[in-house]
Design goal:
The protein is 58% helix and 3% strand. It is mainly α.
Length: 394
């Protein structure tokens, strides 16, 4: 297999990213009527970060303008009730003026094709994947995207919107079990956040939540004390969690969150280094389970975005290894563990070059997930906007 694209110079990677993002912008309807656009919160969070990365690298204002337009469109579409819902207006219940000023105060819908399950409907596990609602890990991704925009524009409005998003939603996802009094998080909530749609806990949701809370406290320090209760709950949940997984996207997410925890520690935040160690160990164990995978398998039988999430995570762990060298406390605890990841880094070239080959993107499986696939492929090419909590110049 030819891995030359993985080692391509920066201008080639920028050109590839430009082409993919132009496709994304046009195909999802960003330049048209918001009512007919195809908005999906997870994908759009990656897209915002990608557009900011392109702006930083090219200084072409169009990319920043597109990122800002995407933020507005996501809020206009996913911050409101669905067209097929009897409810109308902003999810927050605010009037039109207040809703536009505080578009994230009721959370944001996932963007699934089907209406959420009614309270009287029976649960169908397969159908639930296609039903709308709110996912916390998607909300956390969007809060990060708002943070990226806030730093790039210098406009604190976006940091406030990220704060309002997490402050409105996180308490609704957290709960305490009646039997054991253990604290937990719901996996999926209804559009209005009034009831859980899936009560089981997402594997990484408490970790995503903990890190985004720290991030928001840094960016919107005017209300730093507002998350004390939630932070305590999340630390408790994370302390009882195990992180091992064989899911490629989840392994990648563990490595991304480990890198973000490292950044926060370097920025002076007090995080539990033992938790960071456990997260890294969970990612390493998961990677070890992938050693028998055939990376030349028919692309139609593979989900590109899950593999691309793994690549983004491996790029994060590579950066983390460099970061650890700058801080003795981290170096003493983590350096040996991070060195062990080096044998997996060649997977970056293997997977990235496979999906950059145009012939591997012509099948039905790629096309069915084209928006998320394109957005995450661009993130593998230009990962700075997504991986870095604060730009260097800040």
């Amino acid at each position: 297999m030819n891995h030359s694209l993985y080692r391509a110079p920066r201008n080639e990677r920028i050109a590839l990213a430009k082409g993919l993002m132009e496709d994304f912008v046009n195909s999802t309807g960003l330049l048209g009527d918001p009512a007919t656009s195809r908005r999906y919160l997870w994908t759009d969070a990656f897209a915002v970060c990608n557009l900011v990365s392109l702006y930083r690298l090219t200084q072409q204002k169009r990319f920043l303008q597109l990122a800002l337009k995407l933020v507005v469109q996501v809020h206009e579409v996913l911050g409101r009730h669905r067209e097929d819902d009897i409810r109308t207006g902003w999810l927050s219940g605010f009037n039109e003026h207040q809703g536009r000023k505080h578009p994230t105060s009721g959370g944001l819908r996932i963007g699934k094709k089907l209406m959420e399950r009614h309270a009287t409907e029976s649960f169908d596990e397969q159908l639930e994947w296609s039903r709308d609602g709110q996912y916390f890990h998607y909300l956390a991704k969007w809060a990060h995207a708002l943070s990226v925009i806030g730093y790039e524009t210098g406009d604190k409005t976006y940091h406030r919107q990220a704060y309002e998003l997490i402050k409105a939603t996180l308490p609704k996802f957290l709960y305490q079990t009646a039997s054991s009094m253990n604290r937990r998080m719901y996996w999926k909530m209804s559009i209005d956040l009034s009831r859980p749609l899936v009560s089981s806990m997402g594997h990484l949701d408490p970790l995503d939540a903990l890190i985004v809370v720290y991030q928001i406290q840094r960016n919107y320090s005017e209300r730093k004390e507002d998350f004390e209760s939630e932070q305590e709950s999340l630390m408790e949940i994370c302390g009882h969690s195990t992180w091992r997984t064989t899911d490629m996207l989840s392994i990648g997410s563990l490595m991304i969150e480990a890198y973000r925890m490292g950044q926060l520690i370097m920025l002076g935040e007090t995080l539990d280094v033992s938790l960071l160690y456990e997260v890294i160990h969970g990612a390493y164990e998961g990677l070890s389970e992938l050693e028998g995978v055939d990376w030349d398998t028919n692309p139609e039988l593979r989900l590109a975005f899950r593999e691309l999430g793994l690549v983004i995570g491996l790029k994060a762990i590579g950066r983390f290894s460099e970061l650890v060298l700058q801080e003795k406390g981290l170096r003493d605890v983590l350096a040996k563990s991070l060195v062990a990841f080096e044998r997996f880094l060649p997977l970056v070239g293997v997977i990235e070059s496979f999906w950059l080959a145009p012939e591997h993107r012509l099948n039905n499986t790629w096309i069915q997930h084209v928006d998320i696939n394109e957005a995450m492929l661009v993130t593998t090419l230009l990962p700075d906007g997504f991986l870095e909590l604060e730009p260097e110049e800040s």
